[in-house]
UniProtKB/TrEMBL annotation:
It is an enzyme of class 1 (oxidoreductase). It comes from Pontibaca methylaminivorans. It catalyses: sn-glycerol 3-phosphate + NAD(+) = dihydroxyacetone phosphate + NADH + H(+); sn-glycerol 3-phosphate + NADP(+) = dihydroxyacetone phosphate + NADPH + H(+). Gene3D superfamilies: N-(1-d-carboxylethyl)-l-norvaline Dehydrogenase, domain 2, NAD(P)-binding Rossmann-like Domain. Substrate binds at residues 102, 249-250. This is Glycerol-3-phosphate dehydrogenase [NAD(P)+]. It is found in: Cytoplasm. GO terms for molecular function: glycerol-3-phosphate dehydrogenase (NAD+) activity; glycerol-3-phosphate dehydrogenase (NADP+) activity; NAD binding. Its EC number is 1.1.1.94. Sn-glycerol 3-phosphate binds at residues 102, 130, 132, 185, 238, 248-250.
Length: 320
């Protein structure tokens, strides 16, 4: 099973570096100039400066051709996934597609695997998600992630093939739970960053994390996921990582909002679109998602973090 990684950003490059220690990996970058530069310098200077590529890693701008059992890791931002699949449908034919993105598509409300089944029906697919920063993976630091596949046998094969010296994979067949865990934690992380950025304190962050987690479970249950999945790496694990580390872009966007600062709109922040997608979907599911709604209001700069927190505190008192 040869492995290609589609998308040479931080995460795709990090996965390619880690996997290349086990065997050859091809990393596809859409920009030919950048691909050439990376291949020559043996480094992704833009996203992972200072981390040398291992010999087994080849970078190129020619899209890899799928073959029976080839594995293609799709490491592009969630809102770009459908476009890439549509554009490259022919080349992807026959390959096992592993989505590596976290989020919910605006407009459709679909997660990464639903987008795959929508655009390429019948393609074997799985999701790689869970707590890990690209730079940690690329530097060989230890991580544990979730490999979700509804086909259990496929999940076992991928778990074996994609585990590396520093990526320990746990598997699940609960693809909806795994998708939602990875998507929703980013929304909570923006809220937590805003609370800390506005100086509201660590206790406020703990409250947001815990009640945000309750929202994640509520939505997961309504969509048919197992709540146990949310207690695992792709939910609780990733929530803890993302809501407490300045390595997280979602958390950093929140810090900027809380501190009244601008944030570079070119940086991938999956939680922003996901918050809007979730807020739009929740009423149809009969769900109350006050923290998600608050994050959308913060993103739109309709409330200040202090007012947002005051409103959350003023909600009717209830049982935990
Ligand atoms: N960076 C991290 O630590 C982690 C990221 N992820 C997830 O991985 C996904 C990708 O994020 P990053 O790699 O961090 O983002 P990034 O911003 O570092 O890189 C995104 C890459 O996708 C490429 N891209 C964007 N649109 C494209 C298109 N239409 N066709 C081809 N290539 C396109 C960009 O050129 C760029 O190379 C996200 O869903 C993110 O949540 C998951 C775990 C960790
Ligand atoms: O998903 C991640 C950690 O698991 C990366 O977080 P950010 O996208 O917020 O940087």
């Amino acid at each position: 099973m040869n492995i290609s990684v589609i998308g040479a950003g931080a995460f795709g490059t990090a996965l390619a570096i880690s996997l290349a220690a086990k065997g050859p990996v091809r990393l596809w970058a859409r920009d030919a100039g950048q691909a050439r530069e990376m291949q020559e310098r043996r480094e992704n200077a833009r996203y992972l400066p200072g981390i040398a590529f291992p010999p087994g890693l080849e970078v190129g701008a020619d899209f890899p051709q799928g073959s029976e059992h080839a594995i293609m890791l799709l490491a592009v931002p969630m809102q770009q996934l459908r476009g890439v699949l549509n554009e490259r449908a022919e080349a992807l034919d026959g390959a096992v597609l592993v989505a590596c993105c976290k989020g919910i598509e605006l407009g459709s409300g679909a997660g990464p695997l639903s987008v795959i089944t929508d655009t390429l029906p019948g393609a074997p697919h799985a999701l790689l998600t869970g707590p890990s920063f690209a730079s940690d993976i690329a530097r060989g630091l230890p991580t544990a992630l979730t490999l979700a596949a509804s086909d259990a046998a496929q999940g076992r094969r991928l778990q074996e093939r994609l585990s590396t010296r520093n990526i320990r994979l746990y598997r699940t067949t609960d693809v909806i739970g795994a998708e939602l865990g990875g998507a929703l934690k980013n929304v909570v992380a923006i809220g937590c960053g805003a609370a800390i950025g506005a100086g509201l304190g660590a206790s406020a962050r703990a409250a947001l994390m815990t009640r945000g987690y309750a929202e994640m479970q509520r939505m997961a249950r309504a969509m048919g996921a197992r709540t146990r999945t949310l207690a695992g790496l792709s939910g609780f694990g990733d929530l803890v990582l993302t809501c407490t580390s300045e390595q997280s872009r979602n958390y950093r966007l929140g810090l900027a909002i809380g501190g009244g600062r601008e944030f570079d709109s070119g940086i991938t922040v999956e939680g922003a679109a996901t918050a809007r997608a979730v807020a739009a979907r929740a009423p149809d599911l009969g769900l109350d998602m006050p923290i998600t709604d608050t994050v959308v209001a913060l993103l739109d700069r309709r409330v200040t973090p202090a007012d947002a927190m005051a409103r959350l505190l003023a909600r009717p008192l209830k049982e935990e």
